[in-house]
């Protein structure tokens, strides 16, 4: 059934706020409206309604939400915020599972702990000034999703503390009372407690404002995410910002800067544990941005990721631009090949050099004498200002056309200049004159040198892996220290992709004592026995599911990778809904045969403990099975084939 006249959500409005507006202006019982929306038993403050597809199907034709559950999730829930730092493939998997309704615990998929999920779903927050402005502009109040994260305490627009829903109304456990518009309740004296108490601590207040503005920016960003993992970008930015180590991230330095940047008081109020605020051996930054997170196996904590972003992003006071992977630092250039070092003297002006060269007919020695400097100083200043000095006829004849071409080729190939001088028997001054004749040679030589170094270091790592295929990261870091350090600083992406997977050893060095293959086979036998017991029992059947079988044998909490046979066996014996209903109906008909009375809908549904809708769906199967069992169907019954 579609609801005509369902309100259109405002940008950033929560689902609960839209539903509350619909209930306020709809006559009749609220339970009926919620039942049509498939939200009768849903929690108003849940992250995402479990029956999302049914909610979208109940929208009127032409409504933005009609048959478009992705618009509901992407535009009116906190999923884009909690998945901002997740791998793009994992983000799409979670979106797909939630949109299809196959995820029964979205909070776990988002990396939220039980406590964090409980804090998120307790009560809505709103800004009193936003409510007043919305009533003046739209005629109704709106609850915005940017105000709902537990770590957002102030309004990013008005910089005022947010308010919780009324305490008295929140005490009610009735589902219907949870659907309320922002700032509205039926209490004579509403009690709206502030989510933030302002104190005389500028750093603390600035931190809460910064967080609120970043959440607003992230949720307002409609651009598509980059293919690169934001966690990978954040890890690379931290390394480029001076928080790197030979093994990856310098966790101690990050935690120290973390506490200095935000202060212990703010971090404590945000729920950051004492161990995470301690710089002595804490490894949480490395775990937060580990390879499993970058690969998409886990979802990183959005609060800690945001706070880490503040260490390398100059947005302390809340920039208007959203945090984006496009704001990553430029690739680092090896020292010695980037911008020239600063001269400890004043550089000659370009005009003076041009006048001297014109007066000396292009002879650099005579021009240097006119300016009263050495020829080498004049050549350096000309190179720094990208000035060209064509080779004179005398210089070309002295060096030779063939040798000049060989020097140019060597420079373009990135050959070190000292090797060029030694192999070609040419002076440093002559090489400098050749560079002055073609100013682009310096840039080409620099780029070729970096490329040559990169290829040499990559070759060293690949050669080591070829000779020692079983070597781990530590062996490569020790045996190829120069190549490892260079690649870690200037080619980290390639290095991470070509290093062997980390070897995780136990804390005590002992191998596992459990014989997991034997345990796995024991669980398989136990699952088969549980299936036989279910199929052979005399009582009412219960559905055989994967989780039920694993739970009965005690394997549900075990690691799936260690028990592949048990999990495969449980999935093989799991019943579909159709198979289970047929088995239950067959049992009910067999039990009904002892009554010696025609089958009626009322009696059969009591025996089978099924709804009439399920029995009507299998009307033909019931009639066929009743014939086999010698049972008759009452002609007045809805199950009768002659009715």
TrEMBL record:
Ranges where the Transposon Tn7 transposition protein TnsD C-terminal domain occurs: 395-568
Entries under InterPro entries matching the protein: TniQ, TnsD_C
Top-level taxonomic group: Bacteria
Domain TniQ, residue spans: 5-162
Name this polypeptide is given: Uncharacterized protein
Taxonomic source organism: Zoogloea oleivorans
Molecular function per GO: sequence-specific DNA binding
């Amino acid at each position: 059934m579609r609801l005509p006249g369902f309100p259109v959500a405002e940008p950033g409005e929560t689902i609960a706020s839209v539903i509350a507006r619909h209930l306020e202006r709809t006559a009749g019982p609220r339970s009926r409206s919620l039942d049509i929306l498939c939200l009768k038993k849903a929690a108003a403050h849940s992250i995402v309604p479990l029956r999302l597809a049914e909610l979208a199907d109940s929208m009127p034709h032409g409504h933005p939400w009609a048959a478009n559950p992705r618009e509901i999730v992407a535009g009116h829930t906190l999923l884009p915020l909690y998945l901002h730092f997740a791998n793009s493939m994992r983000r799409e998997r979670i979106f797909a599972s939630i949109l299809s309704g196959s995820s029964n615990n979205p909070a776990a998929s988002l990396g939220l702990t039980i406590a964090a999920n409980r804090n998120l779903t307790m009560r809505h927050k709103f800004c009193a000034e936003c409510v007043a402005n919305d009533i003046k502009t739209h005629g109704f109040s709106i609850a915005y999703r940017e105000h709902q994260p537990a770590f957002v305490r102030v309004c990013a627009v008005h910089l005022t503390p947010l308010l919780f829903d009324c305490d008295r109304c929140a005490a009610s456990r009735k589902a219907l009372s949870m659907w309320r518009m922002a700032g509205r309740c039926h209490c004579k004296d509403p009690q709206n407690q502030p989510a933030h108490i302002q104190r005389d601590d500028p750093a603390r207040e600035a931190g809460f404002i910064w967080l609120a503005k970043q959440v607003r920016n992230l949720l307002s960003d409609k651009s598509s995410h980059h293919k690169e993992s934001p966690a990978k970008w954040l890890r690379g930015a931290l390394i480029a910002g001076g928080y790197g180590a030979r093994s990856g991230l310098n966790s101690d330095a990050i935690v120290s800067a973390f506490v200095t940047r935000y202060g212990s008081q703010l971090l404590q109020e945000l729920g950051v544990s004492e161990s995470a605020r301690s710089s002595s051996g804490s490894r949480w930054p490395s775990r937060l941005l580990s390879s499993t997170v970058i690969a998409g196996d886990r979802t990183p904590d959005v609060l800690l990721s945001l706070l880490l972003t503040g260490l390398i992003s100059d947005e302390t006071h809340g920039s208007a631009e959203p945090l984006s992977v496009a704001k990553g630092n430029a690739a680092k250039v090896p020292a010695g090949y980037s911008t020239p070092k600063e001269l400890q003297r004043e550089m000659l002006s370009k005009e003076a050099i041009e006048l001297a060269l014109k007066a000396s007919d292009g002879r650099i020695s005579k021009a240097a004498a006119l300016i009263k400097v050495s020829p080498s100083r004049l050549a350096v200043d000309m190179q720094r200002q990208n000035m060209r000095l064509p080779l004179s006829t005398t210089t070309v004849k002295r060096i030779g056309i063939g040798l000049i071409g060989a020097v140019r080729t060597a420079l373009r190939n990135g050959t070190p200049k000292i090797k060029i001088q030694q192999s070609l028997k040419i002076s440093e001054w002559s090489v400098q004159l050749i560079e002055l004749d073609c100013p682009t040679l310096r840039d080409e030589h620099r780029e070729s040198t970096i490329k040559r170094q990169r290829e040499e270091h990559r070759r060293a790592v690949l050669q080591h892996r070829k000779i020692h295929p079983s070597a781990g990261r530590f062996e490569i870091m020790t045996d190829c220290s120069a190549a490892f350090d260079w690649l870690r600083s200037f080619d980290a992406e390639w290095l991470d992709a070509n290093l062997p997977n980390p070897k995780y050893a136990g804390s005590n060095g002992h191998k596992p004592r459990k014989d997991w293959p034997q345990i796995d086979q024991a669980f398989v036998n136990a699952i088969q026995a549980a299936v036989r017991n279910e199929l052979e029992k005399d009582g009412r059947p219960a559905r055989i599911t994967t989780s039920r079988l694993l739970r009965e044998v005690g394997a549900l909490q075990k690691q799936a990778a260690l028990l592949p046979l048990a999990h495969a066996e449980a999935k093989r014996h799991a019943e579909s809904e159709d198979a289970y209903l047929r088995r239950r109906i067959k049992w009910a008909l067999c039990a009904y045969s002892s009554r010696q009375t025609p089958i009626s809908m009322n009696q059969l549904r009591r025996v089978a403990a099924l709804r009439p809708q399920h029995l009507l769906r299998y009307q033909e199967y019931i009639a066929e099975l009743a014939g086999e069992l010698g049972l008759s169907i009452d002609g007045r019954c809805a199950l009768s084939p002659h009715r």
